Amino acid sequence: MKLFTRQNRILTTILSKYNFSTAPKSVSSIQIKGQNFICDDYTNVTPKMISYLGRNLHLQKNNPLSIVRQRIVNYFYSSFTKRGHPAFSVYDNLSPIVTTKQNFDDLLIPTDHPSRAKSDCYYINRGTLLRAHMTAHQSELLRSGLDNFLMIGDVYRRDEIDSTHFPVFHQVDAVRSQRKEELFIGKPDLEIFEPSYDQENAHAYVNSIDDPMKQSCHTLEAAKLMEGQLKSHLIGLTKVLFGDDIKCRWVDAYFPFTHPSWELEIYYENNWLEVLGCGIVRNEILVNAGPSRNTIAYAFGLGLERLAMALYKIPDIRLMWSTDSGFVTQFENVDLNEDITYKPVSSYPQCTNDMSFWLPSHLTIDTFMSNDFYDLVRDVGGDIIEQVKLKDKFVHPKSKKHSLCYSIVYRHLERTLTQAEVNQVHKEIEKAVVDAYNVVIR
Protein backbone atom coordinates (compact mmCIF):
# COMPACT_ATOMS: atom_id res chain seq x y z
CA MET A 1 0.00 0.00 0.00
CA LYS A 2 1.22 3.51 -0.83
CA LEU A 3 0.59 4.75 2.69
CA PHE A 4 2.94 2.27 4.27
CA THR A 5 5.53 2.48 1.50
CA ARG A 6 5.78 6.19 2.22
CA GLN A 7 5.93 5.61 5.97
CA ASN A 8 8.69 3.03 5.59
CA ARG A 9 10.67 5.47 3.51
CA ILE A 10 10.24 8.17 6.14
CA LEU A 11 11.16 5.73 8.89
CA THR A 12 14.36 4.75 7.10
CA THR A 13 15.28 8.41 6.67
CA ILE A 14 14.64 9.15 10.33
CA LEU A 15 16.59 6.23 11.70
CA SER A 16 19.57 6.75 9.41
CA LYS A 17 19.83 10.50 9.81
CA TYR A 18 18.39 11.66 13.11
CA ASN A 19 18.87 11.14 16.80
CA PHE A 20 15.91 12.97 18.30
CA SER A 21 17.42 13.76 21.70
CA THR A 22 20.70 15.21 20.44
CA ALA A 23 22.20 16.38 17.16
CA PRO A 24 22.13 14.37 13.94
CA LYS A 25 24.95 11.84 14.02
CA SER A 26 25.40 10.82 10.41
CA VAL A 27 24.68 14.05 8.54
CA SER A 28 26.79 17.21 8.49
CA SER A 29 24.31 19.29 6.50
CA ILE A 30 20.71 19.32 5.36
CA GLN A 31 19.06 20.94 2.37
CA ILE A 32 15.87 22.96 2.83
CA LYS A 33 14.21 24.81 -0.03
CA GLY A 34 17.38 24.65 -2.10
CA GLN A 35 19.65 25.94 0.67
CA ASN A 36 22.32 23.90 2.45
CA PHE A 37 22.58 24.28 6.22
CA ILE A 38 25.33 22.95 8.48
CA CYS A 39 24.00 20.69 11.25
CA ASP A 40 25.17 20.99 14.86
CA ASP A 41 24.09 20.01 18.36
CA TYR A 42 20.91 22.10 18.06
CA THR A 43 19.60 20.50 14.86
CA ASN A 44 16.23 18.89 15.56
CA VAL A 45 14.13 19.76 12.51
CA THR A 46 12.62 16.58 11.07
CA PRO A 47 11.86 15.47 7.50
CA LYS A 48 8.15 15.65 8.31
CA MET A 49 8.42 19.32 9.32
CA ILE A 50 10.45 20.15 6.23
CA SER A 51 7.70 18.62 4.09
CA TYR A 52 5.22 21.25 5.30
CA LEU A 53 7.29 24.19 4.02
CA GLY A 54 5.74 25.88 1.02
CA ARG A 55 2.24 24.47 1.55
CA ASN A 56 0.95 27.98 2.42
CA LEU A 57 -2.58 26.98 3.45
CA HIS A 58 -3.31 30.63 4.23
CA LEU A 59 -3.03 31.43 0.50
CA GLN A 60 -5.14 28.53 -0.81
CA LYS A 61 -8.43 30.01 -1.96
CA ASN A 62 -10.78 27.30 -0.69
CA ASN A 63 -9.11 26.74 2.65
CA PRO A 64 -10.88 28.13 5.74
CA LEU A 65 -7.59 29.66 6.89
CA SER A 66 -7.43 31.69 3.70
CA ILE A 67 -11.01 32.88 4.16
CA VAL A 68 -10.29 34.14 7.68
CA ARG A 69 -7.02 35.72 6.48
CA GLN A 70 -8.84 37.65 3.77
CA ARG A 71 -11.54 38.83 6.18
CA ILE A 72 -8.84 40.21 8.51
CA VAL A 73 -6.99 41.91 5.66
CA ASN A 74 -10.23 43.44 4.40
CA TYR A 75 -10.97 44.85 7.86
CA PHE A 76 -7.62 46.64 8.03
CA TYR A 77 -7.82 47.79 4.42
CA SER A 78 -11.24 49.35 4.99
CA SER A 79 -10.53 50.75 8.46
CA PHE A 80 -7.19 52.46 7.76
CA THR A 81 -6.46 54.55 4.70
CA LYS A 82 -3.79 57.08 3.86
CA ARG A 83 -4.39 59.51 0.98
CA GLY A 84 -7.06 57.21 -0.41
CA HIS A 85 -4.95 54.04 -0.25
CA PRO A 86 -4.81 51.26 2.38
CA ALA A 87 -2.48 52.30 5.19
CA PHE A 88 -1.47 48.72 5.94
CA SER A 89 0.80 46.72 3.66
CA VAL A 90 0.53 42.92 3.68
CA TYR A 91 3.40 40.41 3.66
CA ASP A 92 2.10 36.86 3.33
CA ASN A 93 4.92 34.98 1.60
CA LEU A 94 7.97 35.60 3.80
CA SER A 95 10.45 32.73 4.16
CA PRO A 96 9.79 30.60 7.28
CA ILE A 97 13.55 30.07 7.73
CA VAL A 98 14.82 32.76 10.11
CA THR A 99 17.81 33.44 12.31
CA THR A 100 17.79 33.30 16.10
CA LYS A 101 18.46 37.04 15.98
CA GLN A 102 15.22 37.60 14.08
CA ASN A 103 13.17 35.17 16.16
CA PHE A 104 14.52 36.11 19.59
CA ASP A 105 17.22 38.79 19.91
CA ASP A 106 15.51 41.50 17.85
CA LEU A 107 12.42 41.01 20.03
CA LEU A 108 14.28 41.36 23.34
CA ILE A 109 13.57 37.74 24.29
CA PRO A 110 16.05 36.85 27.09
CA THR A 111 18.66 34.17 26.43
CA ASP A 112 17.18 32.02 29.21
CA HIS A 113 13.56 32.40 28.08
CA PRO A 114 11.81 29.01 27.77
CA SER A 115 10.59 29.81 24.24
CA ARG A 116 14.20 29.40 23.02
CA ALA A 117 14.43 25.77 24.24
CA LYS A 118 15.10 22.93 21.81
CA SER A 119 12.01 21.27 23.24
CA ASP A 120 9.88 24.17 21.93
CA CYS A 121 11.43 25.07 18.55
CA TYR A 122 12.49 23.38 15.33
CA TYR A 123 16.16 24.31 14.98
CA ILE A 124 18.07 23.88 11.72
CA ASN A 125 21.21 24.72 13.68
CA ARG A 126 22.17 27.02 16.55
CA GLY A 127 21.75 30.14 14.47
CA THR A 128 18.78 29.18 12.29
CA LEU A 129 15.31 27.78 12.88
CA LEU A 130 11.82 27.54 11.45
CA ARG A 131 10.12 30.68 12.74
CA ALA A 132 8.12 30.21 15.92
CA HIS A 133 6.02 33.33 15.33
CA MET A 134 5.43 35.84 12.56
CA THR A 135 6.79 38.57 14.85
CA ALA A 136 10.21 37.27 13.77
CA HIS A 137 9.88 39.58 10.73
CA GLN A 138 8.82 42.66 12.67
CA SER A 139 12.22 44.32 13.04
CA GLU A 140 13.33 43.76 9.45
CA LEU A 141 10.13 45.36 8.15
CA LEU A 142 10.48 48.28 10.57
CA ARG A 143 14.10 48.75 9.44
CA SER A 144 12.89 48.91 5.84
CA GLY A 145 10.89 52.02 6.75
CA LEU A 146 7.40 50.51 7.10
CA ASP A 147 5.01 51.92 9.71
CA ASN A 148 1.82 49.84 9.34
CA PHE A 149 1.90 46.24 8.15
CA LEU A 150 0.43 42.76 8.47
CA MET A 151 2.65 39.65 8.50
CA ILE A 152 0.87 36.39 7.65
CA GLY A 153 2.31 32.90 7.37
CA ASP A 154 3.05 29.46 8.75
CA VAL A 155 4.88 29.07 12.07
CA TYR A 156 6.44 26.00 13.68
CA ARG A 157 6.45 24.91 17.31
CA ARG A 158 7.01 21.58 18.98
CA ASP A 159 3.94 20.71 20.99
CA GLU A 160 1.64 18.00 22.23
CA ILE A 161 -0.58 16.09 19.82
CA ASP A 162 -4.37 16.43 20.02
CA SER A 163 -7.33 17.84 18.09
CA THR A 164 -6.36 21.48 18.73
CA HIS A 165 -2.55 21.30 18.49
CA PHE A 166 -0.40 20.81 15.39
CA PRO A 167 3.31 21.59 14.96
CA VAL A 168 2.52 23.90 12.03
CA PHE A 169 -0.06 26.64 12.33
CA HIS A 170 -0.69 30.05 10.82
CA GLN A 171 -0.51 33.51 12.34
CA VAL A 172 -1.39 37.08 11.52
CA ASP A 173 0.87 39.60 13.25
CA ALA A 174 0.60 43.36 12.81
CA VAL A 175 2.29 46.63 13.73
CA ARG A 176 0.75 50.11 13.67
CA SER A 177 3.11 53.05 14.28
CA GLN A 178 2.25 56.70 14.82
CA ARG A 179 4.23 59.90 15.09
CA LYS A 180 3.32 62.77 17.39
CA GLU A 181 1.33 64.69 14.77
CA GLU A 182 -0.66 61.55 13.87
CA LEU A 183 -1.39 60.52 17.45
CA PHE A 184 -2.20 63.96 18.87
CA ILE A 185 -4.12 65.58 16.03
CA GLY A 186 -4.73 69.23 16.85
CA LYS A 187 -2.94 69.00 20.20
CA PRO A 188 0.67 70.10 19.61
CA ASP A 189 1.29 70.56 23.34
CA LEU A 190 1.11 66.79 23.98
CA GLU A 191 4.19 64.57 23.57
CA ILE A 192 4.86 60.87 22.98
CA PHE A 193 8.00 60.89 25.13
CA GLU A 194 8.73 62.01 28.69
CA PRO A 195 11.08 65.03 29.09
CA SER A 196 13.73 62.69 30.56
CA TYR A 197 13.89 60.75 27.29
CA ASP A 198 16.66 62.04 25.04
CA GLN A 199 15.71 61.22 21.46
CA GLU A 200 19.19 62.11 20.20
CA ASN A 201 20.72 59.48 22.49
CA ALA A 202 17.90 56.97 22.46
CA HIS A 203 20.25 53.96 22.46
CA ALA A 204 21.68 55.08 25.79
CA TYR A 205 18.29 55.42 27.46
CA VAL A 206 17.37 52.61 29.88
CA ASN A 207 13.69 51.99 29.23
CA SER A 208 11.97 50.63 32.34
CA ILE A 209 8.78 48.55 32.29
CA ASP A 210 8.23 48.68 36.05
CA ASP A 211 5.10 50.80 35.68
CA PRO A 212 2.23 48.47 34.67
CA MET A 213 0.54 51.30 32.76
CA LYS A 214 3.39 52.35 30.47
CA GLN A 215 7.06 52.22 29.54
CA SER A 216 9.17 54.82 31.30
CA CYS A 217 10.03 56.60 28.03
CA HIS A 218 6.37 57.24 27.13
CA THR A 219 4.04 59.84 28.51
CA LEU A 220 0.89 58.50 30.10
CA GLU A 221 -1.22 60.38 27.52
CA ALA A 222 0.55 58.63 24.62
CA ALA A 223 0.40 55.19 26.23
CA LYS A 224 -3.30 55.42 27.12
CA LEU A 225 -4.31 56.84 23.74
CA MET A 226 -2.48 54.00 21.95
CA GLU A 227 -4.04 51.47 24.31
CA GLY A 228 -7.48 52.85 23.55
CA GLN A 229 -6.89 52.69 19.79
CA LEU A 230 -5.46 49.19 19.97
CA LYS A 231 -8.33 47.77 21.99
CA SER A 232 -10.95 49.56 19.93
CA HIS A 233 -9.49 48.30 16.65
CA LEU A 234 -9.22 44.70 17.86
CA ILE A 235 -12.72 44.66 19.37
CA GLY A 236 -13.88 45.95 15.99
CA LEU A 237 -12.10 43.09 14.22
CA THR A 238 -13.57 40.54 16.62
CA LYS A 239 -17.10 41.81 16.02
CA VAL A 240 -16.58 41.69 12.25
CA LEU A 241 -15.59 38.04 12.59
CA PHE A 242 -17.97 36.81 15.30
CA GLY A 243 -20.84 39.30 15.22
CA ASP A 244 -21.80 42.36 17.24
CA ASP A 245 -23.18 40.30 20.12
CA ILE A 246 -19.89 38.52 20.94
CA LYS A 247 -18.81 38.95 24.56
CA CYS A 248 -15.19 40.05 24.99
CA ARG A 249 -12.83 40.73 27.88
CA TRP A 250 -9.23 41.92 28.26
CA VAL A 251 -6.70 40.06 30.41
CA ASP A 252 -3.34 41.52 31.45
CA ALA A 253 -0.46 39.55 29.94
CA TYR A 254 3.33 39.57 29.53
CA PHE A 255 5.30 39.44 26.29
CA PRO A 256 9.01 40.37 26.09
CA PHE A 257 8.47 42.62 23.08
CA THR A 258 5.47 44.68 24.27
CA HIS A 259 4.51 46.62 27.41
CA PRO A 260 1.83 46.94 28.59
CA SER A 261 0.44 43.72 27.11
CA TRP A 262 -2.99 42.13 26.97
CA GLU A 263 -4.84 39.08 25.71
CA LEU A 264 -8.33 39.27 24.26
CA GLU A 265 -10.78 36.52 25.15
CA ILE A 266 -14.24 35.83 23.74
CA TYR A 267 -17.06 33.92 25.39
CA TYR A 268 -17.38 30.86 23.17
CA GLU A 269 -19.40 27.71 23.88
CA ASN A 270 -19.76 28.54 27.58
CA ASN A 271 -16.03 29.18 28.06
CA TRP A 272 -13.64 32.09 27.67
CA LEU A 273 -11.40 31.48 24.66
CA GLU A 274 -8.19 33.45 24.07
CA VAL A 275 -8.08 34.74 20.48
CA LEU A 276 -5.09 37.11 20.38
CA GLY A 277 -2.24 38.78 22.25
CA CYS A 278 -1.22 42.41 21.88
CA GLY A 279 0.52 45.38 23.44
CA ILE A 280 2.55 48.57 23.02
CA VAL A 281 5.81 47.78 21.20
CA ARG A 282 8.89 48.12 23.40
CA ASN A 283 10.62 51.36 22.42
CA GLU A 284 14.01 49.64 22.23
CA ILE A 285 12.76 47.68 19.21
CA LEU A 286 11.73 50.86 17.42
CA VAL A 287 15.02 52.60 18.29
CA ASN A 288 16.99 49.66 16.88
CA ALA A 289 14.99 49.94 13.66
CA GLY A 290 16.47 53.33 12.81
CA PRO A 291 17.67 56.64 14.29
CA SER A 292 14.80 58.72 12.90
CA ARG A 293 11.99 56.48 14.16
CA ASN A 294 10.50 58.68 16.89
CA THR A 295 7.19 56.86 17.00
CA ILE A 296 5.00 54.83 19.30
CA ALA A 297 3.51 51.58 18.03
CA TYR A 298 1.17 48.80 18.96
CA ALA A 299 1.37 45.18 17.81
CA PHE A 300 -0.81 42.10 17.95
CA GLY A 301 -0.74 38.46 16.93
CA LEU A 302 -3.49 35.90 16.40
CA GLY A 303 -3.74 32.30 15.22
CA LEU A 304 -5.80 31.58 12.11
CA GLU A 305 -6.52 27.95 13.09
CA ARG A 306 -8.08 28.92 16.41
CA LEU A 307 -10.32 31.48 14.73
CA ALA A 308 -11.31 29.19 11.86
CA MET A 309 -12.10 26.27 14.16
CA ALA A 310 -14.33 28.51 16.30
CA LEU A 311 -16.01 30.31 13.39
CA TYR A 312 -16.78 27.21 11.31
CA LYS A 313 -17.08 24.57 14.09
CA ILE A 314 -14.17 22.53 12.70
CA PRO A 315 -13.45 19.81 15.31
CA ASP A 316 -9.93 18.72 14.34
CA ILE A 317 -7.00 20.96 13.41
CA ARG A 318 -5.69 18.32 10.97
CA LEU A 319 -8.69 18.97 8.72
CA MET A 320 -7.04 22.24 7.65
CA TRP A 321 -4.57 20.09 5.69
CA SER A 322 -7.20 17.83 4.11
CA THR A 323 -7.56 17.68 0.34
CA ASP A 324 -10.67 15.52 0.57
CA SER A 325 -13.36 16.96 -1.70
CA GLY A 326 -15.97 16.52 1.03
CA PHE A 327 -14.06 19.03 3.16
CA VAL A 328 -12.77 21.38 0.46
CA THR A 329 -16.12 21.86 -1.30
CA GLN A 330 -17.70 23.22 1.90
CA PHE A 331 -15.44 26.28 1.56
CA GLU A 332 -15.45 26.59 -2.23
CA ASN A 333 -16.60 29.81 -3.85
CA VAL A 334 -18.29 31.03 -0.69
CA ASP A 335 -18.96 34.61 0.31
CA LEU A 336 -16.24 35.65 2.75
CA ASN A 337 -18.80 36.65 5.39
CA GLU A 338 -21.02 33.62 4.91
CA ASP A 339 -22.08 31.80 8.08
CA ILE A 340 -20.54 28.36 7.48
CA THR A 341 -20.85 25.37 9.80
CA TYR A 342 -18.61 22.45 8.92
CA LYS A 343 -20.52 19.23 8.30
CA PRO A 344 -18.52 16.04 8.97
CA VAL A 345 -18.01 14.06 5.79
CA SER A 346 -17.98 10.85 7.80
CA SER A 347 -17.03 9.78 11.27
CA TYR A 348 -14.26 7.22 11.03
CA PRO A 349 -13.50 5.22 14.19
CA GLN A 350 -10.40 5.64 16.31
CA CYS A 351 -7.86 2.93 17.00
CA THR A 352 -5.89 3.28 20.23
CA ASN A 353 -2.67 1.41 21.08
CA ASP A 354 -0.56 1.88 24.19
CA MET A 355 3.24 1.88 24.21
CA SER A 356 5.25 1.26 27.39
CA PHE A 357 9.02 1.19 27.65
CA TRP A 358 11.87 1.22 30.15
CA LEU A 359 14.22 4.16 29.78
CA PRO A 360 17.99 3.66 29.60
CA SER A 361 19.97 4.48 32.74
CA HIS A 362 20.98 7.99 31.57
CA LEU A 363 17.33 9.08 31.20
CA THR A 364 14.58 9.56 33.77
CA ILE A 365 10.88 10.31 33.57
CA ASP A 366 11.79 13.96 34.27
CA THR A 367 14.59 14.32 31.70
CA PHE A 368 12.95 12.41 28.84
CA MET A 369 11.67 14.98 26.31
CA SER A 370 8.08 14.14 25.37
CA ASN A 371 8.19 16.57 22.42
CA ASP A 372 11.04 14.51 20.94
CA PHE A 373 8.86 11.43 21.23
CA TYR A 374 5.87 13.23 19.68
CA ASP A 375 7.97 14.27 16.68
CA LEU A 376 9.16 10.73 16.15
CA VAL A 377 5.61 9.34 16.38
CA ARG A 378 4.36 11.94 13.92
CA ASP A 379 7.21 11.32 11.47
CA VAL A 380 6.60 7.59 11.40
CA GLY A 381 2.81 7.59 11.67
CA GLY A 382 2.16 10.65 9.55
CA ASP A 383 -1.25 12.29 9.54
CA ILE A 384 -3.10 9.27 10.90
CA ILE A 385 -1.80 10.21 14.37
CA GLU A 386 -4.70 11.97 16.07
CA GLN A 387 -3.44 12.19 19.64
CA VAL A 388 -0.59 11.10 21.89
CA LYS A 389 -1.04 11.18 25.65
CA LEU A 390 1.35 10.38 28.48
CA LYS A 391 -0.71 7.74 30.27
CA ASP A 392 1.53 6.59 33.10
CA LYS A 393 4.91 7.12 34.81
CA PHE A 394 6.51 4.42 36.89
CA VAL A 395 9.72 3.93 38.87
CA HIS A 396 10.49 0.35 39.84
CA PRO A 397 10.91 0.23 43.65
CA LYS A 398 13.84 -2.21 43.53
CA SER A 399 15.70 -1.65 40.27
CA LYS A 400 14.90 2.11 40.23
CA LYS A 401 14.36 1.84 36.48
CA HIS A 402 12.07 4.47 34.98
CA SER A 403 9.18 3.58 32.71
CA LEU A 404 6.74 5.61 30.62
CA CYS A 405 3.49 4.62 28.96
CA TYR A 406 1.98 6.60 26.09
CA SER A 407 -1.44 6.13 24.56
CA ILE A 408 -1.43 6.70 20.78
CA VAL A 409 -4.73 7.38 19.05
CA TYR A 410 -4.88 6.63 15.31
CA ARG A 411 -7.60 7.92 13.00
CA HIS A 412 -7.65 8.53 9.26
CA LEU A 413 -9.64 11.59 8.19
CA GLU A 414 -10.83 10.04 4.94
CA ARG A 415 -11.32 6.30 5.50
CA THR A 416 -11.56 3.60 8.15
CA LEU A 417 -8.27 2.18 9.42
CA THR A 418 -8.07 -1.52 10.14
CA GLN A 419 -6.51 -2.68 13.40
CA ALA A 420 -3.96 -4.63 11.35
CA GLU A 421 -2.82 -1.43 9.61
CA VAL A 422 -2.56 0.38 12.92
CA ASN A 423 -0.61 -2.48 14.50
CA GLN A 424 1.91 -2.32 11.65
CA VAL A 425 2.48 1.40 12.10
CA HIS A 426 2.63 0.93 15.89
CA LYS A 427 5.41 -1.65 15.50
CA GLU A 428 7.33 0.74 13.23
CA ILE A 429 7.05 3.42 15.91
CA GLU A 430 8.26 0.97 18.57
CA LYS A 431 11.30 0.12 16.44
CA ALA A 432 12.05 3.81 15.86
CA VAL A 433 11.83 4.54 19.60
CA VAL A 434 14.15 1.65 20.45
CA ASP A 435 16.71 2.76 17.86
CA ALA A 436 16.51 6.45 18.78
CA TYR A 437 16.56 6.15 22.58
CA ASN A 438 17.81 2.65 23.39
CA VAL A 439 14.66 1.95 25.38
CA VAL A 440 13.28 -1.50 26.14
CA ILE A 441 9.68 -2.08 25.12
CA ARG A 442 7.62 -3.54 27.96
Automatic annotation (TrEMBL):
Its EC number is 6.1.1.20. Residues 68-344 form the Aminoacyl-transfer RNA synthetases class-II family profile domain. PROSITE patterns: AA_TRNA_LIGASE_II (PS50862), FDX_ACB (PS51447). One of its GO terms (molecular function) is ATP binding. Residues 346-442 form the FDX-ACB domain. It is found in: Mitochondrion matrix. It catalyses: tRNA(Phe) + L-phenylalanine + ATP = L-phenylalanyl-tRNA(Phe) + AMP + diphosphate + H(+). InterPro entries: aa-tRNA-synth_II (IPR006195), aa-tRNA-synth_II/BPL/LPL (IPR045864), Fdx_antiC-bd (IPR005121), Fdx_antiC-bd_sf (IPR036690), Phe-tRNA-synth_IIc_mito (IPR004530), Phenylalanyl-tRNA_Synthase (IPR002319). Pfam families: FDX-ACB (PF03147), tRNA-synt_2d (PF01409). GO terms for biological process: phenylalanyl-tRNA aminoacylation. Keywords: Aminoacyl-tRNA synthetase, ATP-binding, Ligase, Mitochondrion, Nucleotide-binding, Protein biosynthesis, Transit peptide. GO terms for cellular component: mitochondrial matrix. Its main location: mitochondrion. CDD domains: PheRS_alpha_core. SMART domains: FDX-ACB. Is responsible for the charging of tRNA(Phe) with phenylalanine in mitochondrial translation. PANTHER family: PHENYLALANINE--TRNA LIGASE, MITOCHONDRIAL, PHENYLALANYL-TRNA SYNTHETASE. NCBIfam families: pheS_mito. Belongs to the class-II aminoacyl-tRNA synthetase family. This is phenylalanine--tRNA ligase. It comes from Trichoplusia ni (Cabbage looper). The lineage of its organism: Eukaryota, Metazoa, Ecdysozoa, Arthropoda, Hexapoda. The gene is LOC113494235.
